[in-house]
Amino acid sequence: MSMLRYRRILLKLGGEALAGEGGIGIDPDQADIVAGKIRRLRDLGAEVAIVMGAGNLWRGKDGLAHGMERVTADHMGMLATVMNALALADALLRAGVEPRVQTAIEMHSVAEPYIRGRAIRHLEKGRTVLLAAGTGNPYFTTDTAAALRAMEIHAEVLIKATKVDGVYDKDPKVNSDAKRFDRLSFIQALNLRVGVMDSTALTLCMDNDLPIIVLDLWQPSNLEQAVLGEPVGTLVEP
Q1: For position 104, which CATH number holds?
Q2: CA 82 – CA 88 distance, rounded (Å)
Q3: How far is the C-alpha of 74 from the C-alpha of 57, rounded, in Å?
Q4: Which of 178, 180, 123, 188 is closest to 149 using CA atoms?
Q5: Tens-place pLDDT, residues 174-205
Q6: 0.70 exceeded by the pTM?
Q7: Domain containing 112: what range?
Q8: Residue 43 belongs to a domain
């Protein structure tokens, strides 16, 4: 455990991490792969809390485009994150990792309510905690929920695992000359509007000196390298 640069981490996953073909729905095989990656973090001795998005099941902007109220669209997104958390928790259990799902919206027959002290206690006992339903409030993204929960549980780093190998100055999929950053300050990330996370989440991390690592979830050993403090992805720090 002394090898770890970061012992307690908040892992932010997009819903697409569990998605099937075309980025839609939940694929149990994908969930098993993600669970295996988290198992390897646990084997290193890391304490892992997870916040998931819901883009594989519901995108609020689609509802807004059809005249849906923002609050309704956001509540639907929160419920979709619970579905993702339950799917990943099931895969973790089968991978030999003891999970606990906590939700910001109380649903006692499905999961525990989010209680900060209880979440910390689960982590101390070696359990992996999935923190679902965002902050429980509309108008806040799952990025902001991840930053908030990271602060509350005293995480040492927020790892945002995506399909891209770091932060670029422009979209690398459509710009062959896009430049990848190894390191950024929070001020640079905010000023460049690089899309690491939304500005509320970035500012929350900046105000509380919580580093963010943006990396490619699907590259072998990326998560392990990150918690060991090895250079990987883009580090956003004070």
Answers
A1: 3.40.1160.10
A2: 10
A3: 13
A4: 123
A5: 888 888 899 999 999 898 877 778 899 999 99
A6: yes
A7: 8-237
A8: yes
